[in-house]
Amino acid sequence: MQIHDLYFEECLSEDTILKRVTELAGQLNHDYTDKEPIFVCILNGSFMFFSDLLKHINLSCETSFLRVNSYENTSSSGNIKEILGLEINLENRHVIIIEDIVETGHTMQFLIQKLSELKAASVSYCTLLFKPDAYLYSAKIDYVGFEISNLFVVGYGLDYNEKGRNLSSIYVKID
Ligand code: IMP
Ligand code: MG
Fold first, then answer.
1. Can you give the pLDDT at residue 70?
2. Which of 73, 100, 148, 170 lies 20 to 30 A from 16 at CA?
3. Distance 119 CA to ligand 2 centre (A)
4. Distance between CA atoms of 36 and 90, rounded to whole angstroms?
């Protein structure tokens, strides 16, 4: 499959993704019983994961949306800009950040620090994808859907210069 100038092949099918997403929701249902958590969706890439995950959350909970951007073409710039702010008071609340992918970890560090400053009772991180070979920090990530190799992926919310977000499976760049 071609997107712009690059070629991709499927690496995680829709079935595989949805099975794992359901498992993650089960873990969160267990870990956040009676905690009334706030799920924070990191836009744009996490919209599909967030939606599928939240359908399987059976807790009393709230949702919020935050937009950050640190990516240009196919590499992380490390220069994170907050674009669209939270419109919810996080003080003394249990916050679960829902992210599409952790690569270098810069975005994760930025967000955990930022939301902790808002005096949340706890902040945890749940990412669908994790590239351990690109990760620059030592902090363990609370919830990880899949560990993948350090290659560029698209689909299921993730884009290549804004294309490919609508794909229901995840595709990896091939040479
Ligand atoms: P990090 O700050 O380097 O961890 O990068 C995190 C952000 O970069 C993610 O939220 C994605 O938006 C984007 N990103 C990282 N890897 C990929 C990829 O393989 N495909 C598409 N976007 C990616
Ligand atoms: Mg993202």
1. 59
2. 73
3. 23
4. 12
How far, in Å, is the centroid of ligand 2 from the Cα of 4?
A: 20
Per-residue pLDDT band for 114 (boundaries 50, 70, 90) equals confident
Determine the residue of 158, 163, 173 to mutate for testing ligand 1's pocket, defined as the one with the most ligand atoms within 8 A of the Cβ atom: 158
The alpha carbon torsion through 66, 149, 142, 30 (nearest 10 deg) reads 100
List, in sequence order, the alpha helices (H) in 2-83.
14-31, 47-55
Q: Report helix angle 47-55 to 14-31, nearest 10.
A: 60
Dig out the tokens for 58 from the structure.
């059976």
Closest-approaching ligand to the CA atom of 153: 1
pTM, rounded to two decimals: 0.93
Residue 73 has pLDDT above 60, yes or no: no
- Give the SS3 label for residue 75: strand
Residue 102: which pLDDT band, with cuts at 50, 70 and 90? Answer: very high
Rounded CA separation 127/3 (Å): 24
Element (H, E) at 115: helix 106-117
